[in-house]
Amino acid sequence: MKPKILTTLPGYTAALFRADLLAGITVATVALPLSIAIAIASGAPPATGLTTAIIGGFLISALGGSRVQIGGPTGAFIVVVYGVIAEYGHDGLVLATLMAGIIMMIAGVFKAGSLVKHIPEAVISGFTIGIAIIIATSQLRDLFGLSVTDLPADFLPKIAALWSARDTFDPRALAIGAVALTVIVGLRRLLPRFPGLIVAMALCSAAVAMLDLPVDTLQSRFGVLPNTLPWPQIPEITLQRMIELLPSALVIAFLAGVESLLSASVADRMIGGNTRPNAEVIANGVANTGAALFAGLPVTGAIARTATNVHAGGRTPVAGMVHALVILLVMLLAAPLAGFLAMPALAGLLLVTAWNMSEPQHWHRHLAARRSDQVLLVITLVLTVLTDLTLAIGVGVALGLALRLRRRHVPEAEWHDPER
């Protein structure tokens, strides 16, 4: 459970620092707009996304069991965060995140990190694709410039509300969102190491400002971003509140653990590393506790940002710590500039995020899988979209473990005639 930084710093060279510094700056350019967009989609103030990336990202890199993991807010949390804020307010989310952090630290101490490998892949794919669908539909309002005051959280009522507002469609908003989406995808394919997210957001937001387009921006909807971190504070804690928020805290802890360990596993394959899973779980627990004390969002290892770090040359946890410090520096010096970000452009960014979350490169594998795995994936997906993550994860994991036992030909229990 020893943090990876303690084994990478001995023998650390100036050349390694230069590589980590460049990688950290590169990842920060990706994380900046993404953190803001995820916070907005979650129903939280935009600044909470930056706070989460700074506090949570730094702690995951400093204490984690992976050499190259990058932590921050991710799309996987959007659904559960939105639901918690809608029902319990932002204070409820902070307490749920704090509880999730403590749960993860306890799980890491008892070496539960290795248990993630027993979760069926079909379950993980099902709720990931389900979350991607929910994220994509939640961005249609800003992408099409629709006038919907209160967008319902539930999927079917949300679709009905968007359809009812179709007469308010604004082609200028769609044009801005389409340009952002095209630039992001185009630069990612042509120049994968180029900071395409920043370029897309800057181009679209500059066009909105210079042409004086009547399109919502970050500042027009949320006001000016703060240029400092909030002071840490402990949320109000009562037994009744903790009991109410326990299911949400368990879901946050589960998602954080699964996504972080999956991200670390992907990174290991890229660099030939060997993540310490229990150290990673403990680090995620500390990071979520820290983010909660600063009123931030849940935090976990981010697969896309971790891959960007590896491609940019990051090889030690220093790169992730640099990424967090760069975001802090930008927040301190250039927060007002973020107010010009166009909402349709951020919607385009989140549509790309949702598409990547669904992992279309693996769809053919799902279609070629066993029929039972396909059914499990679809059940988890439908429950995720139409009900909630707690039920989807519970049912999916239970069915998946039952299928695994059945495939191992576990003998049936021996029953005796009851004597009564």
Automatic annotation (TrEMBL):
It is found in: Membrane. It holds the Pfam family Sulfate_transp. Residues 17-380 form the SLC26A/SulP transporter domain. It is a multi-pass membrane protein. Keywords: Membrane, Transmembrane, Transmembrane helix. The chain crosses the membrane at residues 21-41, 47-63, 70-86, 92-110, 122-140, 173-190, 245-267, 325-355, 375-403. InterPro entries: SLC26A/SulP_dom, SLC26A/SulP_fam. This is SulP family inorganic anion transporter. It comes from Roseovarius ramblicola.
